[in-house]
């Protein structure tokens, strides 16, 4: 596998564009388009929130009915959630307009929205934005980057990546872009992720690879404990790499799944590290677990702990908060066996051994916790399984952003 420059336009046959439609923001782009020269097989995962935005329901139907898709239209600023029949009608209007301008089947137009809940979309602005997107779309790396920037809300940076692998002598590319900064919590979050590939792959293999990987990537991140109404991950495959078809439970499938995992984990970590007001990415790694599920449960509990997140913000090696978070995670372990290590670019330091504090340097621990990427490793010494979860520190910036988000 090779990591290459680019995002959703890296795979053969995919184009992208951005537009400043003025939906909510007046000083930046706020609509994006992903377009494929050929219709695509699709796979997707969606929010577990009972309250689902209109575009989530729209996309779920397309994926479940196995309709081939050729374009994704995304807007930022307004979520089109809790908008009733009117919101669903706007999805239909958007799809019809995009299909008409792009010359494709309206049944294959996927949608994505992110932003304020409860507001209705200004459809004339949306329709004008679609016209601009169709005119501007292109296949360059820059076109993909512009699209990644257009879907941001409180994000501080675009999130994109692309990789290539070789399948049967053919180069296969997977590219992706994502957004997410707040209302982020395991079991999907206010995040949108769009993955493109030129692989020839069966629908069963696509669905299996994406579904299995989401539980180890996007579902292992948390910023604030809130699960959104809009989160969506879509995978589009147009088959233009002309490789031998990738089928479930084959060597080629494992290679594709590994590459997809790399893309998803990268985007998930970028979302976690770009949490609203955050200054650091926190990785919690639990090793020596009896089962994979035990490791995941303990790791998620650490990154979800507000007290732990606040300690990281203060560069305070308050290990008791971490052990406490593990203790209420809902899975049994022996706290008197736990070893805890802090690590970053500034070094590595053992904090507790067998549940008891070691004679460590507070100054060194503070130095380690002052870096932009920090790993906390907890060894529970019960087996050979392990898992990682990702979050961020909790600062005053989170309150500043969310206290007046609508205005």
From TrEMBL:
Substrate binds at residues 153, 179, 190, 276, 402, 407. It is found in: Cytoplasm. Gene3D superfamilies: arginine biosynthesis bifunctional protein suprefamily, ArgJ beta chain, C-terminal domain, L-amino peptidase D-ALA esterase/amidase. InterPro entries: Arg_biosynth_ArgJ (IPR002813), ArgJ-like_dom_sf (IPR016117), ArgJ_beta_C (IPR042195). Its EC number is 2.3.1.35, 2.3.1.1. Pfam families: ArgJ. The active site is at residue 190. It catalyses: L-glutamate + acetyl-CoA = N-acetyl-L-glutamate + CoA + H(+); N(2)-acetyl-L-ornithine + L-glutamate = N-acetyl-L-glutamate + L-ornithine. The keyword Magnesium does not apply. GO terms for molecular function: L-glutamate N-acetyltransferase activity, acting on acetyl-L-ornithine as donor. Pathway: Amino-acid biosynthesis; L-arginine biosynthesis; N(2)-acetyl-L-ornithine from L-glutamate: step 1/4; Amino-acid biosynthesis; L-arginine biosynthesis; L-ornithine and N-acetyl-L-glutamate from L-glutamate and N(2)-acetyl-L-ornithine (cyclic): step 1/1. Signal peptide: none annotated. The record marks 114-115 as: Involved in the stabilization of negative charge on the oxyanion by the formation of the oxyanion hole. It comes from the Bacteria. Keywords: Acyltransferase, Amino-acid biosynthesis, Arginine biosynthesis, Autocatalytic cleavage, Cytoplasm, Multifunctional enzyme, Transferase. PANTHER family: ARGININE BIOSYNTHESIS BIFUNCTIONAL PROTEIN ARGJ, ARGININE BIOSYNTHESIS BIFUNCTIONAL PROTEIN ARGJ, MITOCHONDRIAL. Belongs to the ArgJ family. Heterotetramer of two alpha and two beta chains. Catalyzes two activities which are involved in the cyclic version of arginine biosynthesis: the synthesis of N-acetylglutamate from glutamate and acetyl-CoA as the acetyl donor, and of ornithine by transacetylation between N(2)-acetylornithine and glutamate. This is Arginine biosynthesis bifunctional protein ArgJ. It comes from Faecalicatena acetigenes.
């Amino acid at each position: 596998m090779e990591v290459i420059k680019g995002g959703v336009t890296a795979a053969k046959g995919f184009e992208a564009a951005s537009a400043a439609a003025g939906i909510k923001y007046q000083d930046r782009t706020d609509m994006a388009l992903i377009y494929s020269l050929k219709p695509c097989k699709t796979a997707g995962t969606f929010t577990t929130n009972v309250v689902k935005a209109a575009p989530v329901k729209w996309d779920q139907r397309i994926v479940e009915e196995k309709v081939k898709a050729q374009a994704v239209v995304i807007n930022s600023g307004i979520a089109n959630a809790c908008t009733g029949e009117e919101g669903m009608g706007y999805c239909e209007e958007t799809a019809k307009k995009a299909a008409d301008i792009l010359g494709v089947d309206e049944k294959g137009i996927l949608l994505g929205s992110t932003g304020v809940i409860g507001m209705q979309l200004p459809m004339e602005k949306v329709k004008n934005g679609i016209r601009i997107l169709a005119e501007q779309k292109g296949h360059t790396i820059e076109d993909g980057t512009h699209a990644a920037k257009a879907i941001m809300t409180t994000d501080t940076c675009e999130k994109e990546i692309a990789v290539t692998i070789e399948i049967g002598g053919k180069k296969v590319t997977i590219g992706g872009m994502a957004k997410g900064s707040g209302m982020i919590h395991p079991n999907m979050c206010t995040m949108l992720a769009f993955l493109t590939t030129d692989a020839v792959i069966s629908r069963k293999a696509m669905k299996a690879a994406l579904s299995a990987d989401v539980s180890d990537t996007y579902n292992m991140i948390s910023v604030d404990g809130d699960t959104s109404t809009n989160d969506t991950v879509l995978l589009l495959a147009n088959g233009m790499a002309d490789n031998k078809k990738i089928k479930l439970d084959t060597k080629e499938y494992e290679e594709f799944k590994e590459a997809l995992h790399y893309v998803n984990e990268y985007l998930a970590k970028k979302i976690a590290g770009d949490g609203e007001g955050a200054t650091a990415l926190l990785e919690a790694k639990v090793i020596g677990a009896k089962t994979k599920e035990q490791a995941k449960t303990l790791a998620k509990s650490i990154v979800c702990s507000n007290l732990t997140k606040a300690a990281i913000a203060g560069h305070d090696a308050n290990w008791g908060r971490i052990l406490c978070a593990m203790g209420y995670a809902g899975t049994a372990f022996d706290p008197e066996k736990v070893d805890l290590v802090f690590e970053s670019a500034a070094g590595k330091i053992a904090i507790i051994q067998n549940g008891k504090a070691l004679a460590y340097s507070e100054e060194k621990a503070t130095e380690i916790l002052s870096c932009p990427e920090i790993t906390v490793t907890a060894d529970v010494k019960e087996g050979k399984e392990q898992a990682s979860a990702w979050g961020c520190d909790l600062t005053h910036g989170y309150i500043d952003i969310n206290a007046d988000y609508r205005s």
